[in-house]
Every structure is written in structure tokens, then in C-alpha cells.
Amino acid sequence: MKNRRNKRESGQVLLTGLVMMLIILLAILLLFDVHSVIRAKYKVETANQAAALAAAEWQKESLNLLGEINLIKACETLLESEDHWPAASPDPSLTPEEARAKLLRERIGLLTEMQVRVSFLGPLVGFAAAQQAAKQNGLTPVMNADNTLPLEDYVQLLQENWRYLQVSDVRNFKWRIPYLNMVSDIVSQGIVVYPNARVANNPIVEPGGLAKDALYQEIMRHRAEIAAADPPEQSDWHGVIYPFVRKMSDADYEGKWWNIDYSMSEFPHESEIFTLGVEYDSSDYDENTRATIQTLLGNRNAYSVTDLPPVQFCVYDKFWYPDYYRNNYTDYDDNHYSWWFEAGVLRQPVKPQYIYEGPAAYAESAANINLVSRYAVTGDRRSADVGRRFVRRRDPEGGGYSRRIGTRRASSANANLVETDYRPGAIAKVLGELGQGAPPITLPVILPVFDNTTLTPTYMPMPYGFGVLRVTNSPLDRFLNWLSREESLFAYGTSPPLGTSGYLEALQILTDGPGFRCYGWNPSWNASAFDSRYRSDAARLFTDRSYVYSRSNTGGAGWLQEAQEFTLTNSAEAGIQEVEDYVNGGTARRFFSSSNSRVYIVVDSKGHIVTNDEIDPTVHYFTGGGSGGSGPGFNGTQDRPDTQPGPPRI
Fold first, then answer.
1. Do 85 and 107 touch, CB atoms closer than 8 A?
2. Which residues cross the membrane (predicted)?
3. Does the pLDDT of residue 520 top 80, yes or no?
4. Maximum CA pair distance of the chain?
């Protein structure tokens, strides 16, 4: 009897040991996958940065070479009376002055053709350098799902599309064959990083959220919530939809309230990849330009306007100038300029000499890794049963269980192709300045003044109107193209393209203030009366929904105006009601939903009930010190979320 009991006990120990070994084995396999994912993310991040910097370096060299040729043009013009160039016998029908002018035009034309060649081929060298930089940092080329090379379809477009066939030459340079051959050679070697490009179907969209699929998804989600109950139980309104609800009134939705501009999608007459943004024009040397030059020359004197003949210089195109965007897009300052230049994501504003738009080099890539684990987690509910939380990965061809990994912040698969703001790649900017801290665009003529490149914080937006090189035409692309030609969402001239009516329906819903937007933000809401009524007993708001907007309560609070429910992160503060107000000073009060609850509502030191549109003033946001900038980021020191530090050079 004793022997049997010992055997049973021995079997129990063995079973427990097997279970423990199985758990340890699963943990080891999981750690292998975690290590592989982290390693891939850092590899992709490093490759993106190296590629962006390599491309920006070639943008810098190309711009400086264009500037050097401009100086040669200027010198040749000043010395045109001296015979430095071999020439054929003069045309006897021309006067000596006419013959000299003709020879000068020919020489300037030859130099202009050299500049055109640089503007087409210089950025492509940067494109090739970006691929090599990424490969040197560990990334390898991949094939598309249909077993074609990435960007092979772009090569096909260069061969066949009327956009390129109709432009046979630019300033006497027959560009298409050399450009096509270079792109084809680079693509045939394998594409690792995708560049930014100024291509067709890449409009500047205002308001910018119209170019994001997430906007339409959020509209339809909120509509379903509103239809389910009144007042509804709503998800948050802090997504892409936020500015459409919070910052736009009924008047803003009257008439054609959108602007979809394809002007940057026109063929730029230079490289579409890593575009420099240049054009050619006769010298615009007037008294204003002369005065600007004089301030840069110090004690030296600038030539008078009458002393110089007209010369065709290579100049910055309009897309370098912030004023161009400011005059054409009403949201430029709020949604772009302040983020790039006014400490929106930097601690301090950008130095004045670097305040210009123009080119930047963007690089985006991803890496494929094989996972050891055969199961993937679905959903985020811990209460779900195991069968619903874990699903077996599909491996139809019997190879590795592969996953595509982007950067540390987001997967490139989740980045909308039309957006011009945050994307999961790396951005590098060309830096240059004239004397006395003036930006290069102070003078319209390109000069060799670009001496540096820098990575910029990835949360800073891409250069305005640029997009990642692609040739796909998504349903949203087609809808935006249609919408750009229409004057009304209701009395439209032609039907939207097949498969895009859902986008139109979503925007029609968005224009309905009382029936839709007021559920997010109600402009008629009386916040002062609400504070006066509930500030002394805010705990009632956990159950009292009578103040919320509904069809029968049109003066109620939208979701953003409802009292926000916060959750304690420090258990030592449980039950403590009187706490410091780090934003307004003084003492704020927390109202808990119950005596043992960690969920609370805040009434700040001014007697205001903190809403879903505001931060918790009772939390000390430690940022390491330093004041914020004047952009849309938070200001202040160590009392609220601060803006991010940026590269010291800019």
C-alpha cells in the first residue's frame, strides 16, 4: 500500500515537471520571437535613417551644383565681351551686338541644359545611394506578392504613360530614355526603401483628414453608436475626426468646404523621385532684389538694374515658399507650418535661416522575419477564451511563419498612402543659408549655399504635398479625384466612382450638426452652468446621464464635453480626494465612483469639471524640464506633456 502511494506521488511530481518544462519551452520560443521582432525593428529604423541621409546628401550636392552653374552663367554674362568660348564664323546678317547676344544665349542655353540633366539624374543617384545605404545596414530586397520587383510598375509607367510621353524634352535635354534607364537599373538591383516622390494622384488635401481612411471609418462607427441608443454609449472622438467636430462649425460646412489640389501632381520637369523643386526663368533683377542683395554684400556695391542683361537662371519653384501654401491653404499654418517651424514637435522654433519648404528625403522600408511561434494573439480582451484569443498562423506553402516588421512606431502597412503628415519612415532635410542668417529662398536664384543635412523628428510632417512613391489607385484616391471636381456633396454633377459611394455617404453624415457632430461637440453646451451644478458632488456623474446630448436634449454635452473618468496609476493615492492641481495651481478634488474604486472624476482648483477634451491636472507629467514652444504642443515646464527635443542644428 505504501509503495503504491509513493508511485502515485512520484507520478504527480513527474506530471508537474512536464507541465513546467512545457511552460519554459513556450516562454523560450516566445522570447525568440520577441528578440527577432525587436532586432528587425531596430534594423529597419537604422536602414531608414541611413537611406534618408544618403538621399539628402545627393539632394544637397545637386542643389549646390545647380548653384555653381548659376554662378558660371553670371560670370559668363559679365565677361561676354571677352572671347573665352570658341565659336563658328559670325552670321554676316547680324550686327556685332546681335551676334554677341546670340552667342551668349547659346552658351547660357548649354549651361541650362546641364542644369536640367543635374535635376533629373542627381536625385536618382541619391535614390541608388539610399538603396545601398539600407542594404549596408542589413536589409535585403524583397519581391512583391505577385513575384514582381517593387516599383517595376513605375518603370512600366515611364515607358507607356502619356504623362511622360507628352514631354519629349526639357530645355533641349531628351530626358526620358536616360531617366528611364537609370530607374530601371536601380529597380532591377532590388528596392529596399521606398522614396518620397512628386507623382500623379498625390494631391494636397484640405482639410487634411479627408485623405485618411480612418476619418470615414470613425464617422461610420459613431453613426452606428448613435443609431444604437439615444443618448449613445460612445467611443472616443479624439481621432482624425476631432478637428472636423471641435474646430469646424455649421458655417464651415457650407458650399465647397474642401480643397483638393493636384498642382503638385503635374510632371515637375525634373526627377519625380526626391524632387529638388527647381525651374528656369529670366533673371528677375529689379530694385527690390538689388536691395536684398545689397544687404548681403556689406561694403560692396551691387550692380544697378540697367547694367545686367536678362539671363535664364535656375531658381526655386513656388513649392519652396511657405507663403505660397499660406495663401492657398487655410489650414497650412495650424496643421503644418507650426509643426515644422514653430516648436510643434521641437523644444524651440527652427532657426530663421532654415525656414523654407522645398525638398526633403524620406525613406520607408520593412523587413520580413520568420517566427518560431505558430500562434498569433487576436483581440485585446483578457476575458476572452483561449480559442478566441489565439489563432494558428497560416503557412500555406510550408515555409517559415513570416511577418513583415516596420519601424519602432508603426507598420508601413498601416500608413495611408495619401497622407502627408506622420509616416513610419525617416526624413532628412537639406540645410543651407545665405549670409547673416537669411534662408536660401531670400533670393530666388539657387546658389551653392547648402552645407549640411539632418534627420528630422519623424513626427514632423513630410514636405507639403509629397507622398511615398506608388502607382496604386485606391478607392480613396479615386474618390478624392472625383470630389476635387464637384461643388456639392448633395447636388453633384456626376456619380462617384464605383465602390466609393461609402466615402460620400460618410461626408454627408459629417455635415449634419444636430444629427451627428453635436454628439461629439455641442457648440450650444453651457459648461459654466454644468460646473456650477455638479462641482460639489461630481460623483453623481458616474450614473447621471441626463446632461448628455441627445435628440431630446439638444442643449446637452457632446462626448468631448462629458466629464472624463480617469484611473489611478499609483495605488498609494487610492481614496485621497484633495490633491495638487499641477496645471492651474491650488488644490483639485478627485471624486471616486466608490470607496474602493480607482476610477475618479476631477474638479480642478477653479471649480471646473475636467472633460474628455482635457488632461488630468492632478497628474504630474515629468518631462525632464525645458519650456515648450509656441506650436500646438504643450507649453510649460514639468507640469504637463512637453514637446520633444530635436536635432540641435535646426
1. yes
2. 12-32
3. yes
4. 130
